[in-house]
Give the backbone structure.
Amino acid sequence: MKKILILGAGTGGTIMANKLRKSLERTEWEITIIDFEKTHYYQPGFLFIPFGMYTKKDVIKPKMDFIPVGVNTVFAEIDSIAAEENSVKMKNGDIYKYDYLIIATGTRIVPEETPGMLGELWQKKIFDFYTIDGAIALADFFKTWKGGDLVLNIADMPIKCPVAPLEFVMFADAFFSERGMRDKVNIHYVTPMSGAFTKPRASKILGNLLEEKNINIIPDFYLERVDNENQKIVSYDEREVPFDCLITIPVHKGSEVISRSGLGDDMDFVPTDKFSLRSHKHENIFVIGDASNIPTSKAGSVVHFSADVLFENIHCAIENRPFTASFDGHSNCYIETGHGKGALIDFNYDTEPLPGHFPFPGIGPFGLLKETRMNHYGKLIFRWIYWHILLKGKEMPINSKMDLAGKKLA
Amino acid sequence: MAQKNYTGISVEVNEEGYFLDSTVWTKEMAVEIAKELELELTDLHFEVLNYLRTRFNAGEALTIRGVGKSGVIDIKGFYGLFPGAPMKKAAKIAGIPKPASCI
């Protein structure tokens, strides 16, 4: 019996388990998936929790609901990967051997990387919304907050879902407007980037949108520390931004498993070929999603599109053929802009987000890089698609390769 | 694409002034690019530039946090050498592309 081992039963690991169990003979291939946590979190939903639009029950389901019959599922903590021995050691001493390993261990926030972040104001006036606990604590805080300087700060790149911080401040604008206290809340968007987003045309359009909503952008701010006593954040070049409420997007790193295994870069992301999705170092190790260092957004859409590529290339590897699939870095993000509207961007390694229509050229129904009601509904409907189609590795009417048709190039 | 003249040699650069071909770079060119950014290069600057070029040539991603962990210099010092936007300025002076760490 040959063995495929998948580390991580999040979006990437679950999709791969579904796809591979369908295509590989059960009599020849054993598939095992390992995770330490039994709950699957719909992470795009965390954004909605602070504003009372979703609660915890809207974003959780048991992982077992999505793992197909015929896949061995292990809920236990991984100690490390011994790549030279083709095995994975568990904290309880168990050892799993593999012929092929798929690393899908994701990324995590590391607030302790920034001095002062976990100081006395943590979860009192300093919150994150990238964890379920953080999002819930913030929802409680907002219920009685009287207003002041609301500062959203991105500590460093890369982060999960680079548009979520933008959505957060636009939701905050709408939320406090609806409560009749927008004049008491000053919203500041403090980022290490030179503008609202990473790619020039989207940055300009989204930057204008923030301005229209009276959200103050403070660019090129690289966070050094949080001063709890004086309630301000301080950058490496000694600039200071005072806050009454700080929303932090902390430094992101890969899993500690990667670090313990010596398979990661400075930030514990696994060096991975951005086209084939195979590890640079090991021929029988593939990496999907946030765990890799490929230069894409760390986002569910990227995982979904790259799963098609990884699936094909694993079959190539098994059958001793050269790789036939190549990932183009396709990423697709709905951006909530508040007041029941949304925008949408679609891009890849080489093409920045452009205006136009999606997925059907000239028709839509979604508009690229513009605010429409339809885009907002797209985001809400996506949660259903995520649970029912995407995780199960079923076909969607969207190409995994980015399509230039329907986009305005000039 | 644009052309720039450094040390009497014509160099191809992108619209933001980053070298298209990092192999044509010389230390003398670095001194001239730095002048455009109103910087005077010291030995420590060159240590950082060499580190960035080595990492770039090895195909590795360049980040400010990575430089901070390099042992060459800490992040505060990096800001001291290349004020304002250290990675962008240092990459330009080192003749390598603008780091794609911002995604």
Remarks:
- Chain B has five helices and two strands.
- The beta strands of chain B are 2-6, 9-13.
- The interface with chain A takes residues 60-61, 63-66, 69, 75-76, 78-79, 83-85, 100-103 of chain B (CB under 8 Å).
- The longest helix of chain B spans residues 43-57.
